[in-house]
């Protein structure tokens, strides 16, 4: 079974272990800040301390690599991302997914259960109807109660199944769409 630890990219664990090992062999540098652009916004990461033997460029490359991976797997704003391709697939055939997407879906399921369904990553159709999604401009008119009810037929975490192989997801309704921007 997947745990929260699976979502923490192994590259970060490897780099952190390298920092610890290198730190044991020499002095440490004071905190450093790393900034950049990703997913239509900016980020800032502060590393409290790191060994002198680890260059800032290496840390920046790891941060950028992890964020690029998240974007490739989870961005609903990139039509080439894994989640966008899954959403566009209007079948109920199990689809092989990355460990990242599967781990996020597993964690989202735990949160969905813990919140009595108040948190639900299958809200993609409703997000679009209200004008918050990538495919629709801002809604000038709120969807009608009938439209909302119709869309709800494609929403609900119970309509997303996890394959016994541990590597696939299956939509039980073709119109189900994931949105992990919550």
Helix content: 40-55%
**Major β-sheet strand ordering:** 5-7-6
Oligomer: single chain
- Rough shape? elongated
Overall mean pLDDT: 83
Tell me the series of helices and strands, N- to C-terminal. HHEEEEHHEHHHEE
Largest sheet: 3 strands, antiparallel
If you had to describe this structure to a student in words, what would you say it looks like?
The chain has 182 residues and is α+β, with helices and mostly antiparallel strands. It has 7 helices and 7 strands; from the N terminus they run H-H-E-E-E-E-H-H-E-H-H-H-E-E. It has helices at residues 4-7, 10-25, 56-74, 82-88, 99-114, 124-129, 145-151; strands spanning 28-29, 32-38, 41-47, 50-51, 95-96, 160-162, 168-171. The strands form 3 sheets. A 3-stranded antiparallel sheet has the order 5-7-6, with no helix packed on it. A hairpin with a 2-residue loop joins strand 2 and strand 3 (41-47). The longest helix is centred in the middle third of the chain and has 19 residues, at 56-74.
Note the main attributes of this structure.
alpha+beta, disordered N terminus, two-stranded antiparallel ribbon
How are the secondary structure elements laid out?
Layout: H1 4-7, H2 10-25, E1 28-29, E2 32-38, E3 41-47, E4 50-51, H3 56-74, H4 82-88, E5 95-96, H5 99-114, H6 124-129, H7 145-151, E6 160-162, E7 168-171
Give the gist of this structure.
Helices cover 41% and strands 15% of the residues. It is α+β, with helices and mostly antiparallel strands.
